[in-house]
């Protein structure tokens, strides 16, 4: 894993240097190779580099890769790479695409407390009510992790705050089990 990250960093640095020298750099033709070229840039929120590479490419921004079949939008939401997230959304990335576990980019942003990413995903019509394979919504993820400051942002978009996960737990139950003050916010909704 460490070796792979070193190789990705070397490749990223080469691409960045060549972009700075105004040489034309193109993404590889196939999506599988291209996504691994773009991923470290998305993780580092290097939106200008990503934008330059996507400009003349035929890369499918909804391409799902890896074992869990996530898109670059999932990666941007997970890492809090707001500028890349917006760039991908503007290029047609699906904010409601579910990976193999049923998680959307909004689930990942909520799980990690990425407020700006959550806001942008909502602007692009991310569905707060989607459940993953375990029945968890973005509200559940906020409750699990005690992200009380972000609950209000999502609750206004939720059709049913009392939706139960696969274990019959609502976000309120999950918050109580984890000892978070989220409880009072959920009770007052």
TrEMBL record:
Q: Which UniProt keywords apply?
A: ANK repeat, Repeat
- ANK repeat feature ranges: 68-100, 101-133, 134-166
Species: Lates calcarifer
Q: Which domain of life is it from?
A: Eukaryota
Q: Which Pfam families match?
A: Ank_2, Ank_4
Q: Where is the signal peptide?
A: none
This chain's protein is named: HECT domain and ankyrin repeat containing E3 ubiquitin protein ligase 1
Q: Which InterPro entries match?
A: Ank_Repeat/CDKN_Inhibitor, Ankyrin_rpt, Ankyrin_rpt-contain_sf
């Amino acid at each position: 894993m460490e070796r792979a990250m070193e190789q990705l960093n070397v490749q990223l640095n080469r691409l960045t240097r060549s972009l700075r020298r105004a040489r034309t750099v193109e993404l590889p033709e196939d999506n599988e190779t291209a996504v691994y070229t773009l991923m470290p840039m998305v993780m580092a929120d290097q939106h200008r580099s990503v934008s330059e590479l996507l400009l003349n490419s035929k890369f499918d921004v909804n391409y799902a890769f890896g074992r869990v079949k996530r898109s670059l939008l999932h990666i941007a939401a997970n890492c809090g790479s707001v500028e890349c997230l917006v760039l991908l959304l503007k290029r047609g990335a699906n904010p409601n695409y579910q990976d193999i576990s049923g998680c959307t980019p909004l689930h990942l942003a909520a799980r990690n407390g990425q407020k700006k990413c959550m806001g942008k995903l909502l602007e692009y019509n991310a569905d707060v009510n989607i459940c993953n394979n375990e029945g968890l919504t973005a509200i559940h993820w906020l409750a699990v992790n005690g992200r009380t400051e972000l609950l209000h942002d999502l609750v206004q978009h939720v059709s049913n705050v009392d939706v139960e996960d696969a274990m019959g737990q609502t976000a309120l139950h999950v918050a109580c089990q984890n000892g978070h003050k989220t409880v009072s916010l959920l009770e007052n909704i």
